[in-house]
Amino acid sequence: MLSSKLLTLVLVVQPGRVLLGMKKRGFGAGKWNGFGGKVQPGESIEDAARRELHEESGLTVDALEKVGNIKFEFVGETQLLDVHIFRADTYNGQPTESEEMRPQWFECDKIPFSQMWADDILWFPLILQKKKFVGYFKFQGHDVILSHKLEEVEEVEEVEEL
Asked: What is the pTM of this model?
């Protein structure tokens, strides 16, 4: 039985562009990604998403929309990554490099999928279309998807906190 690790991911989207960060260290280093991380005990998932966005990019947001939930299994690992995905259409501050991430804006037709997690190309377009989704991806290593499920939903189920 796999244990579950609760994580957040925030994508800041503006008309025609999206903010991504180059992960500088740790899990996923060398890949472009949204901003996020672990939910701390007693912290709501949305609070964790706001905290991680601020820590990694310097930005704050007034509103976050929950748009997705994807569970990731990595062959040989004992933890399932339960990632709650949010979209922010407005933000406060200027994107600022942190110890962990280097933010950069990308035009929506120039998203660097070849330098991102292999699953991103499958669900990222749904975010840009303001659609909601749930999914499951099984990886061999960090680059090969062995199997996956992805479906659009009306609403993403809420889990409040750890």
From this structure: 0.94
Can you tell me whether residue 146 is helix, strand or coil? strand
* Beta-carbon contacts of residue 68 (< 8 Å; ≥ 6 apart): 83, 84, 85, 123, 126, 127, 132, 133, 134, 135, 156
Instruction: Give the largest Cα separation in the chain, rounded.
Output: 43
* Cα distance between residue 46 and residue 85, in whole Å: 10
Q: Mapping DSSP to helix (H, G, I), strand (E, B) and coil, where does residue 26 land?
A: coil
CA distance 7 to 5: 6
Q: What is the pLDDT of residues 6-17, one digit of tens each?
A: 999 999 999 999
3-state helix, strand, coil in the chain (%, to 5): 15, 45, 35
Place of tokens 């706001």: 50
- By residue count, the chain amounts to 162
> For tokens 């062959």, what's the residue?
75
